[in-house]
From TrEMBL:
InterPro entries: OxRdtase_Mopterin-bd_dom, OxRdtase_Mopterin-bd_sf. This is Oxidoreductase molybdopterin-binding domain-containing protein. Gene3D superfamilies: Oxidoreductase, molybdopterin-binding domain (3.90.420.10). It holds the Pfam family Oxidored_molyb. Residues 26-175 form the Oxidoreductase molybdopterin-binding domain.
Amino acid sequence: MQTPHIEKKPSSLRYYQEGPPESLDAIDMSTWTLKLFLPYESSPIQITFEKLKNIATITENRRVVCVCNWSIRRNWTGILLEDLFDYLGINPSRYRCYNLKQLSLGTAKGVYDSTIELSNAFENRAMIIWDIDGAALSLEEGYPIRLVDFSLYRYKGVKCLSELHITDEFEQGYWEGKAGYCKTGKIKPKRYRIVDLQEHRFIDGTGEVTEF
């Protein structure tokens, strides 16, 4: 399951500008839960890591694109966002006009946030990921889980995901404010360095890259 030329992938630690968690041990997975807040509800639905992994696990080979002009195809293991909603008894069609705000577990230096369109996430089969290439997410990649919408730039999925909020507001996220990135996170049409192929190719910016 190893991704070709993985040693050539740029480091993702740069995307922890305020500092990652100090270690895996800093996150107690025996008490950790993913929290999902419905509109106008103050108390979240909570799900443990073990229950999350037992919903409908899949592994898919899909390509992500980074705003810093590179892309890589890897083997992602997790569940579809839509399957999480189904498991929790939440009708996805009821919230298709809403957005999904993500919050990271955070560090002593702060919390990362990002907002995406729910309808786009469902249609593009966004996943909640916990393994890549058969190994648990590293701190660098966003341990313990990360939401990935493959039709958007990587910065739209916060690392070390802790909370999901269904909301009618589309807020500017951390990286849009920090680096001036596009609020929607749509992939721009241009040439990117394709890490797994070790060449440059043009990506047309119409959504998830599936042609190579």
